[in-house]
Design goal:
Blueprint: E1 2-7, E2 13-19, E3 22-29, H1 42-64, E4 73-79, H2 83-100, E5 104-108, H3 109-114, H4 116-120, E6 128-133, E7 138-143, E8 149-154, H5 160-170, H6 177-185, H7 210-223, H8 230-258, E9 263-267, H9 274-281, E10 289-291, H10 295-298, H11 302-314
Parallel strand pairs: 1-4, 4-5, 6-9, 9-10
Antiparallel strand pairs: 1-2, 2-3, 6-7, 7-8
Helix pairs in contact: 1-2, 5-6, 5-7, 5-8, 6-8, 8-9
Length: about 325
């Protein structure tokens, strides 16, 4: 099926056209305005979605060389995310569904990241362990099929991406902090400073990064004066990044051993981190299959929403003609 997919859960507006595993177009518009505020301003994000969504839809169709009459269904992110941003996307999708008499498939944003590896690699087989790691989410899933998965680990407080962003802020760097930390860390010493690996030896697969943020704050206050010199920036970035990646890799590896699963998928914005990709790829020497999305599928994107919508239609007898669904900002809970 040719599906027009809409993703507007946070500050990226994305429209894609998919046909099964084939991504015919995947247009993404970011919102640089949030940089000057050091974080996402929900109202500004909503306004930007309103300004962009129609233009990007026509652009995506043009790239796919299709018109609305060629589309078989519409898919849209329904949860979780910023309420205003989700409302813009879902309202636009409902309008298209009504106007063109098309089925409308609501898709959970996190599920999109969970199954992004299946879009990236058609040879990927179930079951697999999926680590979804971003600015708002850090969770582990045991994925058994397109209709069945189990939440096996979640962050108890802050997400890994938030830890990157807050660390960058404490160091006097810009926003978003993840890419800046990653770039600086490439020239730093990851063993220069020792930061806590919270919960790394716990008996579960949960995460915690609030302690790391606190540790970094007090360490900088005690040992440095702002602005930091370049060498200190690089060594701090490398040391903090190493602490975060160590925990993510260890927990994921431990989960794969417990559940006897050799396939691992990493999704979400932090999956673009170069050290994380390097460390997880090292597991291939131990017989693991590691699937890391291309950069355009790491960030929030509509291609994964359209792909999963197609799988929902294939694997469900449900008729997607209900336009009364409501969006939700609630994060995914443990089952």
């Amino acid at each position: 099926m040719k599906i027009l997919a809409i993703e507007s859960s946070c500050d990226d507006t994305s429209i894609a056209v998919t046909n099964g595993n084939n991504v015919l177009s995947n247009v993404i518009s970011s919102q640089p305005i949030h940089t000057e505020f050091g974080g996402i301003v929900p109202e500004l994000a909503s306004r930007s979605h309103i300004n962009n969504i129609s233009r990007l839809t026509y652009s995506s169709l043009e790239i796919a060389n299709l018109k609305f009459v060629d589309i078989d269904a519409v898919a849209v992110t329904s949860e979780p995310g910023l309420m205003g941003s989700l409302i813009v996307g879902s309202s636009f999708a409902k309008g298209l569904s009504l106007k063109y008499n098309l089925p409308l498939i609501p898709v959970n944003h996190i599920e999109g990241h969970i199954y992004s590896g299946c879009l990236e690699d058609e040879t990927l087989e179930f079951p697999f362990i999926s680590l979804v790691v971003s600015g708002g989410h850090t969770s582990l899933f045991l994925v058994k099929s397109y209709s069945e998965y189990e939440v096996i680990g979640m962050t108890k407080d802050d997400a890994a991406g938030e830890a990157f962003d807050k660390t960058a802020k404490l160091m006097g760097l810009g926003y978003p902090g993840g890419p800046i930390i990653d770039k600086l860390a490439k020239e730093g010493n990851p063993t220069e400073y020792e930061f806590p690996r919270s919960m790394i030896n716990s008996d579960d697969f949960d995460f915690s990064f609030s302690g790391l943020k606190t540790s970094v704050r007090y360490f900088i206050q005690k040992n440095f004066e702002l602005p930091l010199n370049e060498l200190d920036k690089k060594n701090l970035a490398a040391s903090v990044q190493a602490a975060i990646v160590d925990v993510l890799k260890h927990k994921t590896y431990k989960a794969s051993k417990k559940y006897k699963v050799k396939n691992i998928v990493i999704g979400g914005g932090v999956s673009a981190n170069s050290l994380l990709r390097k460390k997880f790829n090292e597991l291939e020497s131990k017989g693991f299959k590691i699937v890391l999305p291309k950069m355009e599928y790491c960030i929030d994107n509509a291609a994964m929403i359209g792909f999963l919508a197609n799988k929902k239609i294939e694997h469900s007898k449900r008729k997607y003609n209900d336009l009364t669904f409501k969006v939700s900002s609630r994060p995914m809970r443990s089952k």
